[in-house]
Design brief:
CATH superfamily of the largest domain in chain A: RNA polymerase sigma factor, region 2, helix turn helix motif
Number of domains of chain A: 2
Order of helices and strands of chain B: HHHHHHHH
Number of strands of chain A: 0
Shape of chain A: globular
Oligomer: heterodimer
Number of helices of chain B: 8
Distance between the termini of chain A: 59 Å
CATH topology of the largest domain in chain A: Rna Polymerase Sigma Factor, Chain: A
Number of strands of chain B: 0
Largest sheet of chain B: none
Structural class of chain B: mainly alpha
Strand content of chain A: under 5%
Radius of gyration of chain B: 27 Å
Distance between the termini of chain B: 32 Å
Order of helices and strands of chain A: HHHHHHH
Number of helices of chain A: 7
Radius of gyration of chain A: 17 Å
Shape of chain B: elongated
Chain lengths: 164, 211
């Protein structure tokens, strides 16, 4: 029974691991921290797995536990030596059809997102993942109005960065 | 185009740009030890509860009892004891209930609030122990002063204090109490600084603008 549960869980997570990687990208700045956070999220997902009833999609359920871990449970380890920053190397793949200006804008945007506080990062992440305001408000535990207002403020912040 | 929409478009194109862990790598991870703050908070709180309970017991040692029996205060003190144990159990029960309520499947705000509540229970317990210990010390001192100011006893007892002795006694007591409270205060600042600063900041940020 336990073995079956383990197998089910690992298979699910292997399939949907991108969600966790994306969260790690937003909340950490180097590969070692990325791996640390990925591991902690995996542990927390596994611990909470018995509560997963299967009436929701596994991926939907993951968002909550993974974000909660990143925002609240995870303790950043202090690192003496910083490994190379993603942003400059492999944070994103270049897309050929973009012109230089768009590329530069995007690079600025990604850096700007990194500068946001933990809560704003979560909002932006959920927005990028195509969650509607109802889902965002339920995941974060705030009202829809508040979620909208906060999102508008983030948009303004990003706009200012791009058009100073 | 909206800045965020540009970002979103690119975000969706990056799907292939993430590490890909194998089944075995993930399987190994689920048996690793968690280093979440909830675990830390749990251990630290347990230590605090034990220390505080011990403190409560130490301050009611045998000698204290003998003294009380001699002075026919038994009933009052028994009531106080029962009360203090009841309060201790109540706090431990509350702590346990609050701790059990912490769940990562809750929404972010609820999770944060439950963690803060759990900490708060321990904080209140520590506060209660400090205040009740302080009151006991003051109570005993007051009682001793009253006893010793009774002239007959003062003459019969070799422990009779004069004014200078009293000043010394009070001075030392205040000093000890100050150092003791100071240490606990530092300890708390450190603990909260390390564990809860980020959580509190995030909770306030999240709840800002909420009615």
């Amino acid at each position: 029974m336990e073995k079956e549960l383990e197998h089910q869980f690992v298979t699910n997570l292997e399939r949907d691991q991108n969600i966790v990687h994306k969260i790690c990208r937003i909340y950490t700045n180097d590969q070692a921290s990325h791996n640390d956070l990925f591991q902690e999220i995996t542990i927390q997902l596994w611990k909470a797995y018995p509560k997963f009833r299967g009436d929701a999609k596994f991926s939907t359920w993951m968002y909550r536990v993974a974000l909660n871990t990143a925002i609240t449970l995870y303790r950043k380890k202090k690192r003496g030596i910083q490994t190379q920053d993603y942003d400059s190397v492999h944070f994103r793949i270049k897309v050929d059809e973009y012109d230089d200006e768009t590329e530069q804008q995007l690079s600025l945007m990604y850096n700007a997102v990194k500068e946001l506080n933990d809560i704003d990062k979560a909002l932006v992440f959920l927005y990028l993942e195509d969650k509607n305001y109802k889902e965002i408000s339920e995941t974060m535990g705030i009202s829809e109005v508040n979620a909208r207002v906060k999102m508008n403020r983030v948009k303004t912040k990003l706009k200012k960065i791009l058009n100073p | 185009m909206d800045e965020l929409d540009l970002l979103k478009k690119d975000w969706n194109r990056q799907q292939g740009n993430y590490p890909k862990l194998t089944y075995d790598q993930i399987y190994k991870m689920i048996w690793k030890r968690s280093s979440s703050i909830v675990k830390w908070i749990f251990y630290i709180s347990i230590i605090e509860l034990i220390v505080a309970t011990l403190l409560n017991i130490i301050f009611s040692g045998d000698k204290y009892w003998e003294d009380i029996e001699k002075n026919n205060l038994e009933e009052v003190v028994t009531i106080l004891y029962v009360l203090s144990y009841a309060i201790t159990f109540y706090f431990i029960f509350r702590f346990y209930k609050n701790y059990k309520r912490i769940s990562t499947t809750d929404d972010a705000a609820t999770l944060m609030l439950n963690i803060l509540k759990t900490r708060r229970t321990v904080k209140f317990y520590i506060g209660y122990v400090l205040i009740s210990t302080g009151m006991t010390v003051v109570g005993i001192s007051g009682y001793m002063i009253l006893k010793h100011s009774n002239k007959d006893i003062a003459q019969a007892s070799k422990y009779a204090f004069d004014a200078v002795d009293w000043i010394k006694f009070i001075g030392v007591s205040v000093l000890v109490l100050t150092v003791f409270l100071g240490l606990i205060w530092c300890f708390y600042r450190l603990l909260y600084g390390i564990l809860l600063r980020r959580l509190k900041k995030n909770y306030i940020e999240l709840k800002k603008l909420e009615i």
